[in-house]
Amino acid sequence: MRLLVFGYGFSASALARRLRPEGWSIAATFRSSPEPLIADGVEPAPCDDLDQLRWQSTRATAILITAPPGPVECPGHGALIPALTAARARPNWIGYLSTTGVYGDRQGRWVTERSRLAAISVEGARRVAAERDWLRSTDALGLNLAIFRLPGIYGPGRSVLDRLRAGAARRISAPGQVFSRIHVDDIAAGLADSIARPRRGGIYNLCDDEPAPNSDVVAYGAGLLGMAEPPEVALADAGLSPTARRFYAESKRVSNALAKAELGWRPAYPSYREGLAAVLAVGG
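Given the sequence above, the corresponding structure tokens read:
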């Protein structure tokens, strides 16, 4: 069994750690240097080498695309669809990592996979287009594609605990503002469950059970570290960057019921409390 990854990063490496004990080998594309992949035990493949991608596609049991779309298209789509077509490859499963940003702002209301897509950010709109392109192309080729819409991702080395230690965490007060989150290992578990149960055109929200305000998460993280909570700052006075302002322009609660029902998936970390405690336990 072999996994090919286009865009090997935080989430893909978590999936690789989960699959390797089950006998999987891992290959992944690279753009500049293959050394980080080699150091992680991953077979490197140049992302712009069609012959290499064609060869890798024929060997892959599963393919995961994590690279974000650019202004024109998803780079994974532009590289892999020609490779899959030329090779007449038939992987059992293709997974595309998207974002809950495709739903836009719902003023704190719940969304499901059936909710209307209403992206308000450039990034969200690009994901909507990338989802559409992947669905159309894989359907035309008769391939099993699953799309995973992800909220804020955290885990060891990438959580509010790191920001607190660095003195960079802020408790921003935004009444009514809530966000969903997911621990990176819960993403890996959901992807593995989908690989075991491929369904063409499946779309799943992978997120925890408890959407919560940013200020609650920062306060809880400070408590875990035995630190004083950062003072709360009103959103209007926070002086946020344009990127951060776009983040706070959206508020929604994301339902994970479909992933639970269809994949049998359950988050090991159903809220930020369990997730951050686990991160701290491994020194993250």
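The chain has a mean pLDDT of 95. Try to locate this feature in the token string yourself.
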